Amino acid sequence: MTLVSTLIGTLLFTLIAPVVGCFLAGLDRIVSARMQGRVGPPLLQPYYDVRKLFEKERASVNSVESVYVGAALLFALLAGGVFFSGGNLLLCVFVITLSSLFFIMAAYSTRSPYAEVGAARETLQVMSYEPMVLLMAVAFFQATGSFDVGAVFAQPHPIICTIGLVFLGVLFILTIKLRKSPFDLALSHHAHQEIVRGVTTEMSGPTLGLVEIMHWCENVLFMGWIGLFFVWGNPISVALALLIVVLVYFLEIWIDNNFARVKWQFMFKSAWLVALIAGGVNIALLAFL
Questions:
Q1: Where, by residue number, does the polypeptide cross the bilayer (predicted)?
Q2: Burial class of residue 91 in the structure, from the number of CB atoms within 10 Å of its CB (0-12 exposed, 13-18 middle, 19+ buried)
Q3: Domains in the chain: how many in total?
Q4: What is the span of the domain harbouring residue 236?
Q5: What is the rounded distance in angstroms from the CA atom of residue 113 to the CA atom of residue 201?
């Protein structure tokens, strides 16, 4: 029954997440433009851009690149299906990390010096945020007694009441996972920061379109992680979680537009320090108190 629910969840996530992610990307562009004193593009501009990419002729350095990108998208969809079907949170974390690894391999397969630099930076980003993500899963188990996401609906209160420090840690590394400044080292979406686009330098046409869709799905999944901290047995909690998700996303847009890019050394050290303090202390308190 668990396998069936996961497959159904993955199918629904495949249909819904790109739509929601597209709207989030369009909202991101509009809000960013208003913060910079511009009108900004229409809300559906990300959809128009991706549709145009799929209309272009497929041109890639080698045939392996598109296979790796397709695998990265597939595992991102599977991770979302596991999470939103109430499945195992730890499995979700491992699957979305596997998606990131395939994306890195896609960049390395092009043998472009610019893409390889982007892939190296992407690897550093994964190494930076992964400890905090794993500690989030461990803390979730301590708070609910299970790795199953659906366990939050059996709780008498939101799990942020017991793992609040972990939430702050996840909030910090969320900026890295959303690829926003000051931690957008591998794939900048701001033209003034990169002459070439790092990981996706050699990607174009339908392959680049799949990358954009993958990012939309990832954003929806990560926002789901944020909402998880505010859900409990009361059905009204879902509305509260959605409100918090909206506020957090606006916070990330504000950070993206107000902070300059940092060096990878600062990103790595700060992410691990936050994981040690926020995640480690919170887990130790739950274990010994």
A1: 6-27, 66-84, 90-110, 131-151, 157-176, 238-255, 267-288
A2: middle
A3: 1
A4: 2-288
A5: 9
